[in-house]
Design brief:
The complex is a heterotrimer of chains A (303), B (191) and C (177). Chain B is an alpha/beta fold and 191 residues long. In chain B, 35% of the residues lie in helices and 10% in strands. Chain B has one domain: Rossmann fold, CATH 3.40.50.12280. The radius of gyration of chain C is 20 Å and the shape is globular. The chains are: A mainly alpha (303), B alpha/beta (191), C alpha/beta (177). Chains in contact: A-B, B-C. At the A-B interface, α1, α2 and α9 of A face α1 of B.
Chain lengths: 303, 191, 177
């Protein structure tokens, strides 16, 4: 038991570093797409440290302090529930029976905490951004849930271990190829989760000055930044376990999460922004219809 | 000093930085400068070319943010009308320390082209502490990047302490500001 | 333009006129006749657009000159109407009821020159200067260099009080060439 806690902590720190590294790498790749040199790949580390060492002189009440904590803990908590390497005594974190359902609730926790804290600060731009963020979450959760429940129903299991077990035995057993329409719905909702460009209206800097973190500064912002990075890595792991068959060793985990990291990055570089009602309408029509094809197919064949 | 429940009460002498980490801190601050996206005068037309693809400023870590709460650097680009000066002081006091001011152009130095105008100030130094002066009318984006390189060098040596000067001489700065800004309704400075 | 000038001269008294170009006419009227001429020009001669209202300070003659620039969309002609008003007691009336956009132009002229437009209820609001408490700054007896040096100061190394003489020396030399 002590071993497990120790390895989970080490894994959380490594995931934080990996998330910040991927953030810097994405800035470098976007810069090369634009035809310029970008910052170094370790730029996000430097940003987080600089923000941490700034003095802060403002305070808006208790909720203002709790909001970055929620965000950080949401990230770390989600990370700890997801197994990194299948069936390993060291690296499967704290996955247990029924963890898929807990995970779906936990993923909302981080966004909710930030919303509460941002509205406590009283800044009018934060309020606009919070409504946009929560409405968009109502949009992309629907295709995501269709994909997850479809996969869980098809394999008669609601644990991660069960889902990964059913995908062993070669590449063609991955859920990406067995239930292609469900995975398309999940991948499109992934774009909404990462707030990458067609659906980036929440953090639009030209419109509302950065979105929910408008009033946060210095240490609060460094916590939110780190929380965002580690939350991103946790979501890559979730999608890897759901769609790409889990990982049987550490190198495979790194490679598969890197492939998943490239998908929102390449979409971000070339798209403009949708408005909020356009993006919610998009999420509720096309991915849902595509996912429902497979969903109904599963119902007919298995029951 | 703090009459508002939003501002903390203790003065900066109590919160000192650990000397051991100061060199590393300064290196991190120099390599990740965040600029408030606020164009105060006619010089702000040289800022968009600086941050786009041709004269890339992001390779030095310079980023434009939308709110003064998250920024380090305030660029005063060009002349400052008295109306704008009132708002700029408010923006400067909303930034969290340590913070730096870069003055672009000949107008903040000695009035420049508008030295005899009844509406623009002549010396920026009387109202805000300035770290780097850059001359030109307007300086080209390469010149602004060299000003940033100079600012980074000063930060790494530990000489960029305009914000400390502002806190120490707040009375004098306020006297100069209130002389020309007539309708003054500012909250007290938040440490 | 000549026919237009003759038509106007039939009904109103015009002090001075000049046809500058083919579609450009300048007429000068008395202050009392101004409103009737503007109404006639707008409704009978189709000069429906007021492009500009500005003011010139003739300090030697002790007069302000108010200039109204009108434009005709149908015949594409420019018409400038000038009046001279007294400088010490500069009271005038508004033309807001004829051209609604004159409200903002009159606000600017009041702030910069001090002309009082009777009938314009928003003319006392700030146009470009905030909390200005000196004489209206575009008048020619306002010394803007002295105001700037007194209030905003200068560096100790410079001495700019007689900079206008230095500059005018250079321009006189250049003009002689």
């Amino acid at each position: 038991m002590f071993n497990k806690i120790l390895f989970a902590l080490i894994a959380a720190i490594v995931a934080l570093a990996y998330g910040l590294f991927l953030g810097g790498l994405s800035r470098k790749i976007m810069a090369r797409l634009h035809g310029r040199k970008g910052p170094t790949v370790f730029q996000n580390f430097i940003d987080v440290w600089k923000l941490f060492r700034k003095r802060t002189a403002i305070s808006h009440g208790v909720m203002f302090y709790l909001a970055p904590t929620f965000r950080f803990l949401g990230g770390v908590g989600t990370f700890l529930l997801v197994p990194i390497v299948f069936d390993s005594p060291y690296l499967s974190n704290f996955s247990f029976g029924g963890d898929l359902i807990v995970l779906i609730y936990f993923m909302v926790f981080g966004c909710l905490g930030m919303a509460l804290g941002a509205s406590e600060s009283g800044h009018p731009h934060s309020a606009i951004a919070v409504t946009r963020g929560l409405s968009q979450m109502a949009g992309y959760e629907l295709p995501f849930l269709i994909a997850v429940i479809g996969i869980a129903f098809a394999n008669h299991t609601i644990t991660f271990q069960g889902i990964i077990q059913a995908q062993q035995g070669g590449i063609l057993h991955w859920n990406l190829f067995q239930y292609p329409f469900l995975s398309i719905a999940a991948l499109i909702s992934m774009l909404g989760m990462y707030m990458s460009y067609p659906f980036a209206v929440v953090m639009a800097p030209q419109e509302i000055a950065v979105g929910p973190p408008t009033e946060f500064s210095s240490e609060f912002l460094s916590f939110m930044f780190s929380g965002r990075s580690i939350f991103a890595v946790a979501k890559y792991l979730v999608f890897m376990n759901l769609l790409l068959g889990g990982a049987t060793n550490l190198l495979e985990a790194f490679i598969k999460t890197f492939i998943l990291f490239l998908w929102p990055l390449f979409i971000t570089g070339v798209f403009p922004r949708f408005r909020l009602e356009q993006s919610v309408r998009f999420f509720w029509t096309y991915p849902v219809l595509i996912g429902l094809i497979d969903f109904i197919g599963i119902f007919i064949t298995r029951s | 000093m703090a009459d508002n429940k939003h501002f903390l009460n203790d003065k900066p002498e109590k919160l000192t930085y650990a000397r051991v980490w100061e060199k590393f801190d300064n290196w991190a601050r120099a390599n990740s400068l965040w600029v408030v996206a606020y164009g105060t005068g006619c010089g702000s037309i040289e800022i968009p070319p600086m941050v786009t693809s041709r004269f890339d400023a992001e390779r030095f870590g310079v980023n434009m943010v939308g709110t003064p709460r998250q920024a380090d650097v305030l660029i005063i680009s060009g002349y400052l009308a008295v109306k704008t000066l009132k708002r700029v002081i408010r923006v400067y006091e909303q930034m969290q320390s340590p913070k730096y001011v870069v003055a672009l152009g000949a107008c903040p130095i000695n009035g420049g082209m508008y030295f005899d105008s009844y509406n623009t100030i002549n010396l920026l130094d009387k109202y805000l502490p300035v770290d780097v002066w850059l001359t030109g009318c307007m300086p080209r984006p390469e010149a602004i990047l060299s000003a940033f390189a100079d600012l980074m060098k000063r930060i790494k040596e530990g000489r960029a302490d305009g914000w400390k000067k502002y806190i120490d001489n707040l009375g004098e700065y306020r006297k100069n500001q209130e002389k020309i800004i007539k309708n003054w309704k500012m909250p007290n400075y938040n440490w | 333009m000549k026919e237009l000038l003759d038509r106007i001269k039939k009904s109103f008294k015009i002090v001075n006129e000049e046809i500058k170009r083919e579609n450009f006419l300048i007429i000068e009227v008395e202050q009392g006749d101004l409103k009737q001429i503007l109404v006639h020009l707008k409704y009978n001669e189709n000069f429906k657009h007021l492009a500009l209202l500005s003011c010139v300070d003739w300090i030697e003659d002790k007069k302000f000159q108010l200039t109204y620039i009108l434009w005709n969309y149908k015949t594409k002609e420019n018409l400038i109407v000038k009046t001279y008003i007294n400088r010490e007691k500069s009271d005038h009336f508004t033309v807001m009821d004829i051209f609604p956009q004159a409200e903002i132009y009159e606000r600017e002229v009041r702030e910069m020159y001090g002309v009082n437009f009777e009938g314009n209820s928003t003319q006392h609001l700030d146009f470009a200067l905030e909390d200005w408490d000196d004489i209206p700054p575009m008048r020619r007896d306002f010394d803007t260099l002295k105001y700037s040096l007194e209030n905003y100061g200068e560096r100790e190394e410079y001495d700019r009080t007689n900079i206008r003489d230095i500059i005018s020396e250079f321009t006189d030399e250049w003009r002689k060439k």
